[in-house]
TrEMBL record:
The keyword Transferase applies. The keyword Repressor does not apply. GO terms for cellular component: mitochondrion. Residues 347-362 have a biased composition (Basic and acidic residues). InterPro entries: Malonyl-ACP_OMT, Methyltransf_11, SAM-dependent_MTases_sf. GO terms for biological process: methylation; mitochondrial respiratory chain complex I assembly. Residues 343-371 are annotated as: Disordered. SUPFAM superfamilies: S-adenosyl-L-methionine-dependent methyltransferases. Gene3D superfamilies: Vaccinia Virus protein VP39 (3.40.50.150). This is Methyltransferase type 11 domain-containing protein. It comes from Chaetoceros tenuissimus. It holds the Pfam family Methyltransf_11.
């Protein structure tokens, strides 16, 4: 039985989620019982930073505003560009998109053919032929289901999809070693238990499977954070979090390694956005579903403090290029952390054992000097 044939059959027994095909004729697969394939208990506890139920509600409300997808579409495009650089014999026929949203990554993957190691083509970019899209927000996941002409017939043929409603930070409802690739874009920064999530992703990947992701980094919205701190210190005599406590770039590599991934690589990208003023910036964040969901957030703020924040922002963080007017006057920084990790396999390069060297570095230097 082929890998894809096995997956089609296994979909009928996956628990805790609704499954929808995005082919021309959509159908929901019946789920008859709950099955937990993970070793993580359902009530797995961790110190929580975010209100997940509030975040799902925020994203549900944001599902009505697809014109604010620009930053997520751009980051998805850059992430798939990295996927296109990976050449494998069979590509990644079966992939999982964790925190998929409507179809940001699927659109990019389907745009072109996947090039395999022998030069042949298969599926979409990266050789992805089927993409399982998992998201905790039903409204966001199914937002574009009724829209027509979002993909051409050729793009639909390259890469099929299944949509599943499920919690990204809980146990993933898949057997061990199911996927060739797990990919995630702009969703991991709202996860409370990142180590648990990474271990689950490692579990559902096959040996020599790839985990490729883009997540929002700790330097994001530093302008907004600073403006709130200054305004609250002046007006209220204290500060409270208004921007999520996102992961620092320096910690991501250790998180991947501790979760069992090998050959890890991390890089960062900084995107500067322009807005007419601070108020418009916050409106865009809300309509993206990216407004504050910290458990330590203030439930209420007085108007004077909020107006002071907006005034400080507009004064301190003007665009360096001198542009002004209705289009862009102030800047907002988005730090994106890109990473890749592989599940261990015997074919992968490994460092030699300590003490196995037959020459000293000093000897090599001396020889090169003599020559």
């Amino acid at each position: 039985m082929s890998k894809l044939g096995f997956f089609n059959r296994s979909l009928q027994v996956l628990g805790r989620c609704n499954l929808t095909s995005t082919s021309a004729k959509r159908a929901t697969a019946p789920i008859s019982y709950h099955q937990n394939f993970s070793g993580i208990a359902e009530d797995h506890n961790t110190n929580k930073a975010f209100d997940r139920s509030l975040k799902i509600l925020q994203r549900s409300n944001a599902a009505n505003f697809d014109t604010y997808d620009y930053i997520k579409e751009e980051i998805s495009k850059r992430l798939v560009d990295r996927l296109d650089d990976i050449i494998r014999d069979d590509g990644f026929p079966l992939a999982l998109d964790v925190g998929s949203g409507p179809d940001f990554l699927h659109k990019q993957i389907s745009k072109d053919d996947g090039i395999l190691a022998d030069g042949s083509v298969s599926g979409g970019i990266g050789g992805v032929r089927k993409l399982v899209m998992l998201d905790s927000c039903k409204e966001m996941l199914h937002r574009d289901d009724d829209k027509i002409d979002t993909l051409t017939a050729e793009e639909k043929e390259r890469c099929g999809t299944y949509k599943m409603v499920g919690d990204e930070e809980g146990p993933l409802p898949f057997p061990d070693g199911t996927f060739d690739l797990v990919i995630s874009s702009t969703s991991m920064h709202w996860v409370n238990d990142l180590p648990g999530m990474l271990k689950e992703i490692h579990r559902v990947l096959k040996p020599d499977g790839c985990f490729l992701f883009a997540m929002i980094g700790g330097a994001t919205l530093s302008e907004l954070r600073s403006s709130f701190v200054l305004s609250e210190l002046e007006r209220d005599g204290g500060v409270s979090p208004h921007v999520g406590p996102f992961v620092d770039f320096a910690d991501v590599g250790a998180l991947l390694t501790n979760s069992g991934f090998a050959l890890t690589t991390i890089d960062i990208d900084t995107i500067t956005l322009g807005f007419p003023n601070a108020m418009v910036c916050m409106e865009h964040l809300q309509r993206m579903g990216e407004n504050n969901a910290s458990l330590a957030r203030r439930k209420k703020m007085n108007v004077d403090t909020f107006l002071a924040m907006a005034s400080i922002y507009d004064h301190m963080f003007q665009l360096d290029d001198g542009s002004s007017g209705d289009e862009a006057s102030v800047e907002a920084t988005v730090q994106v952390i890109y990473g890749i990790g592989w599940t261990p396999h015997e074919s992968q390069q490994k460092p030699d054992e300590r003490g196995s060297a037959t020459k000293k570095i000093g000897d090599v230097v001396i020889e090169s000097t003599k020559s």
